[in-house]
């Protein structure tokens, strides 16, 4: 049955199938058929995903693209870059720059971010280039099939050089942006491993099993080792002007690429200079 193939073999959501039906956007061997019609080995199924342009204005600042295929691209985000336009920051955001890139590249779709990074966090961001890949990659992200590894410079030396933090976290006060560890929060799991120790700081590798807002920042502060530069969570601010956190490795399955894709982004200049000083 066509509908079963669309869902199980092509990974198209029920919602998208309904939209495709309205647009008569699925063809089998060049002709339109119903979702419940039979299909056979050797039939050619074509799906026209259509276009979905954004309302945001494009701006033209070349992003650092590390990887790109038909469905996704990976960029290396600079620190101090806002990802989405806000009331206080309506333009000069990464989304505006990616809108400009999409238009120059002839991609008739809106920009869809798969993972998120704070303004001051640097490193790897994964972007979907169409609705199909956004659905596929969001599922992968949601169910933990995507591997995300960070590097952080934290204050002091950890007693345990590696371990797993399993602590519920969230906001006690809806008016605050700060997260805390408390019983009423959502479960968050962070794996950590100390890579290098200095006199007053440590370089730590962190792997996220869940993706809560401020998870690394909150969990490391809970351990008593807040990120350097992270004023919100009690980190020292005399060494670097932002939280010393970098999205270092992304490993994921792109919808139409065999095997896994793995990308790495070296430490940005400010974190590397701080590491050298320490």
Automatic annotation (TrEMBL):
Its EC number is 5.4.99.-. PROSITE patterns: PSI_RLU (PS01129), S4 (PS50889). Keywords: Isomerase, RNA-binding. The keyword ATP-binding does not apply. It catalyses: a uridine in RNA = a pseudouridine in RNA. Residues 71-221 form the Pseudouridine synthase RsuA/RluA-like domain. NCBIfam families: rluA_subfam. Responsible for synthesis of pseudouridine from uracil. This is Pseudouridine synthase. The lineage of its organism: Bacteria, Bacillati, Bacillota, Clostridia, Peptostreptococcales.
